[in-house]
Amino acid sequence: MAKYFDVHPDNPQPRAVRQIADSVREGALIAYPTDSCYALGCGLGSREGVERIRSIRHLDDRHHFTLVCQDFAQLGQFVRVDNDVFRAIKASTPGSYTFILPATREVPRMLQHPKKKTVGVRIPDHVVTQALLSELGEPLLSSTLLLPDEEEPMTQGWEIKDRLDHVVDAVVDSGDCGTEPTTVIDFSGGEAEIVRRGAGDTSRFE
User: Fold this and answer.
1) Distance from C-alpha of 144 to C-alpha of 162, rounded to nearest angstrom
2) How far apart are CA 109 and CA 113, in angstroms?
3) Which residue(s) pair with 118 in the sheet?
4) Packing angle, helices 14-25 and 127-136, rounded to 10
5) Rounded CA separation 143/96 (Å)
6) Cα–Cα distances in angstroms (integers) from residue 19 to residues 1, 57, 117, 131, 171, in the given order
7) Are 63 and 195 in contact (CB under 8 A)?
8) What is the 3-class SS of the chain, one letter each residue?
9) 35-87: per-residue pLDDT in tens?
């Protein structure tokens, strides 16, 4: 049965944030809100968490997982970014974008695309997520909480708790968040390729 955390959207309670971060460190799989929609998240090195996300979402090994980072300095530890790409990403973060880039050695092999050796990264513009990332001190390994055969993610914490109570360890509820996933931009080939149009404006990448 999943723990339920009711977290204030503008002033997250430090005690609750610490408890959530501790549970992630202990191997928990959580459902949490972002600036685009709810996501599933676990610790960076949690192989079990990866397999549980794959199972819940019916994903294959070509799926790009996302490292949700606190800031640009943290993001830079996990992906290789040249100057032009740096400027483009810097101008768009924090925000509802996921960027696919070549992974550094800091990224566990199980998270990388098997052929391209790439990974998704993003910096969310969400108070609660940022508080959790600050407390955790490292990225959250994440994937959009979009269930198989459904067109839109769930938006309510209580609904997620009700439906996923048996497959996640904790649900973080800080009110309604959007139904539109991030915009995905692939920079792994050097030029911006729009992979998915979502909550982030694509005009600067066209």
Assistant:
1) 18
2) 8
3) 102
4) 60
5) 13
6) 16, 26, 33, 12, 12
7) no
8) CCEEEECCCCCCCHHHHHHHHHHHHCCCCEEECCCCCCEEEECCCCHHHHHHHHHHHCCCCCCCCEEECCCHHHHCCCECCCHHHHHHHHCCCCCCEEEEEEECCCCCHHHCCCCCCEEEEECCCCHHHHHHHHHHCCCEEEEECCCCCCCCCCCCHHHHHHHHCCCCCEEEECCCCCCCCCEEEECCCCCCEEEECCCCCCHHHC
9) 999 999 999 989 999 999 999 999 987 788 899 999 999 999 999 999 889 89
**CA–CA distance, 197 with 177 (Å, rounded to integer):** 18
Six-digit token string for 139: 């990225």
Strands 3-6 and 170-173: parallel
pLDDT digits 0-9 by tens, 143-181 = 999 999 888 888 889 999 999 999 999 999 998 888 888
Q: Which residues contact 186 (CB under 8 A, 6 or more apart)?
A: 99, 100, 118, 192, 193, 194, 195
> Cβ(118)–Cβ(13) under 8 Å?
no
Whole-number Å distance between alpha carbons of 48 and 163: 21
Confidence (pTM): 0.95
